[in-house]
Amino acid sequence: MKVKGGFLMYLFIFLGLILGACLIIVAIMLFSPGTSIFGLEWVGENSTGTYATYDGYFKEISAYDTVTINALKHDANGNTIGYGYYDVDIRRADRDAVNSNVVVENKIQGLAKTADKTEFSIKFEESEDGKALTINVVQINTWLASTGASKITLNIPDELNTSNVTFIVNTGSGSVDFGGDIGRDSEAFALESKALTATTESGSITLKELTTASNAINLKTTSGAINLHAESLTTREMSIESASGHINLPATINANTLTLATDKGIIDGGNINANLTLNTQMGVVRLGNINGNVIGTERLDGTDVKLGTISGELGIPSARNVNLEALNVGGFVNIVTEGGRIYIGSVDTGLNSRTNITTTSGEIKVYVEQDNNQIINLTTKSGKITAFVASSSGNKNFTTENGRIDVTLSQSTSLDLISETKGKIVLNWDETNVSNNILYREIRGTDAFTGAIMKLKSNTGNMEFNRVISPEFN
Predict the structure, then answer these.
(1) Can you tell me whether residue 37 is helix, strand or coil?
(2) Could you report the per-residue pLDDT of 25-43, keeping only the tens digit for each?
(3) What is the pTM for the complete model shown?
(4) pLDDT tens-digit series, residues 286-309
(5) DSSP string, 150-207
(6) What is the dihedral angle through the alpha carbons of 61, 53, 190, 130, rounded to the nearest 10 degrees?
(7) What is the mean pLDDT of residues 359-368?
(8) Distances (CA, A) of 294 to 81, 265, 310
(9) Which of 62, 71, 246, 436 could form an SS bridge with 171, CB 3.0 to 4.6 Å?
């Protein structure tokens, strides 16, 4: 026991010496920045600098076609190794500003490897043709760091017209803001541009209320939110992507094309006047009416999509698992999915054109409008098809291998019914006549017979007819 107790005492003394040495080393580094010990040194920067963009050599911001701000990380040799941690804000300056300027706030301290240490720097570079200005801000390169609110702000005076300027921002773990002011009235901080592009890895991106871009808006973040505060936003092309953040769109978007992408985030917005592409995976999309076409890419897997009325086509050519709801589709519908739910329609509205919907094990529920005289093909292998048919023209083909088909006919529907089935098929109708032929059944409503055909087909099961008074879609 004495040997063991003596060993523990020496062990504690040894550990105490090591801890004391570490504390001494840390103290030296803190009180003598730049002192290298074991290849490490303490670095820090707490400063604010203002740099004129117009200094007699460079032109004013409004004179350039493109203005790019890069928040960069360099290695000890001056090579770019990635993007830095700066927040970036492009906004209107205060009322007294005459020329544009860049304000850089550095607030960082931490350990740096002596061999990899870099210093803060800012550099303005003009392209050879004089049409582009690039502002490169290099951060202090740290190994273990405690950062504050390091920020790059481009201040642009009110009188400068920037409607023909493309602004590009690249940063690593910072947020990006377009627009804004220094506490002034709303009209004072309108920021016009030709195009806006922002990329950040783990920060949010915000377009303030009166920020505009006539040609293009491209915003991308990995884990931050994207907020577009304008009530209405008009541009030609728009692409919004946040891998896991929340995307908040305006009440109205007017564009030629709009692409929305997320891996597991949420997208909320209003009405879209554009051709919409959904490139989402494991996310949620909730939008209003779409005045254009809607296309879902192959990545549309595990996504819940809820839309209003779609004026154009709806196409999801290949998806593994998607839940989609839409009130109405005016154009061609072509959907192929392995699982999930496809719900299209409400009372008196739904499919208004040619439709092909195929699912392996999912559920299909649709309303076929009265004036839809196109072919409707609904197919499932082991899922369920529920259809309310108000149309009396155009062939209707509903097929399942070992699932279930429920079809309800409106009171006025008149169709030839071909039933090739051993499966479970339920046909509901009101005030119609059904002939006794098992394989060929004629359904007549109150309207004149048109000769259109409804074909119900299943490989296993039986067929059931139910008379329902005043059938409804629900």
Answers:
(1) strand
(2) 555 555 555 556 555 565 6
(3) 0.83
(4) 999 999 999 998 888 889 999 999
(5) -EEEEEE-TT---TTPEEEEE-SS--EEES--SS--GGGG-B--SEEEEEESSS-EEE
(6) 10
(7) 90
(8) 39, 19, 8
(9) 71
